[in-house]
Specification:
Blueprint lengths: L1 H21 L4 H5 L11 H21 L6 H24 L3 H25 L1 H27 L12
Helix pairs in contact: 1-3, 1-4, 3-6, 4-5, 5-6
């Protein structure tokens, strides 16, 4: 049963990751003015794969903990994975740079709250989520800088961001 629980969380992560296959960077993204510290496109799938594995494992640890905070922690986990899956279609699919920032802001706050809940349940699960928070902070900074460099009205494919 424990393996089934882990696979369920990994499945949710896989669903969120699938948005990257559906809405990858296109020519519009290549034309955007990006900071020098933007990694090559191939880095993102590797980093996100690692993140998805650790957050699925963290959720599993909390799910099997039996803690009284388990419902809160897993509700927050569910919200963050939904927001996570929303960013790629917003940023790449719709070409909404500012919309991506709004999604990332909500995601970052939700991951911060999830990290706190997970730390209260299982210290290691909380530390794993803190790694995710660091990665999201970098992603937010990159999204913000792309928005700043390309103007407040910069929209990729369908108008303003």
């Amino acid at each position: 049963m424990s393996l089934v629980i882990f696979l369920a969380y990994l499945g949710a992560c896989t669903a969120a990751a699938a948005t990257g296959a559906l809405f990858g960077p296109g020519a519009w993204y290549d034309r955007l003015d990006k900071p020098a510290w933007t990694p090559p496109n191939w880095v993102f799938p590797l980093a996100w794969t690692a993140v998805y594995l650790i957050i699925a494992y963290a959720a599993w640890r909390v799910a099997v903990s039996g803690s009284d905070l388990l419902p809160l922690g897993l509700a927050l986990w569910s919200l963050q994975i939904a927001l996570n899956g929303l960013w790629t279609p917003t940023f790449f699919g719709l070409g909404r740079i500012r919309g991506g920032l709004l999604v990332l802001s909500s995601l970052w706050l939700t991951v911060l709250l999830t990290t706190a809940a997970f730390l209260a349940v299982d210290g290691f699960a909380g530390v794993l989520f803190a790694v995710y928070l660091v990665w999201l902070t970098y992603a937010f900074s990159l999204n913000f800088e792309i928005w700043r460099r390309n103007g407040k009205g910069a929209g990729a494919q369908q108008g303003s961001a």
